[in-house]
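hey so u asked for the seq, here:
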Amino acid sequence: MASAVILAAGGSRRMGFPKAMLEYRGKSLLARQCEILHPLVERLVVVSGWASTRLKAHVPPDILHITNHEWYRTGQADSLCLAIKSIPPGRMLVLPVDVPVPSGQLIEAMLSREGSVVPTFRGKHGHPVLLGRDLVETLRHHCPAGGLGNLLGDAQELETGEAWVLANINGPADWARWLLWNRQARPRH
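ran it, structure tokens below
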């Protein structure tokens, strides 16, 4: 089994409101992501930064919540490395909080593979990503400057019919588009 991390440390500058607290079907995005991921992984870690105290209320008590106190000057890779150092060795599913809630079916398909896995839609890489055991151990000892994109060059691609894996919710217009599309196209879960 694998661990998972939800990255929620960013400042949500374009949204102007903590993206993790956006409401989707009566719950925050963060609470929804915890609800979907928690039963599918051995351990779940949430890394928050800006609005950390407010976000903690959206994290169930049996999920590890870590604060990246340097959120304002670090990136997602730094938050990921904090999470990796808090758990035992193994594979890790990585989900930024500003992407749509993944389907359980996609997560299970990713976890059924070995190594690192990136979901794709029509050949384009999306989220979440699964980091293989070797990559997690590399990150445990050396956190890269910048993003993870360069580290995922050898990842297996898992083509999916779920176009939402490419979505990214940066500002209010993205959120409105995603909610509209979701009502029309996505199955409920």
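Residues 2 and 174 are 31 Å apart (CA to CA). The mean pLDDT is 86.
lmk if thats what u needed
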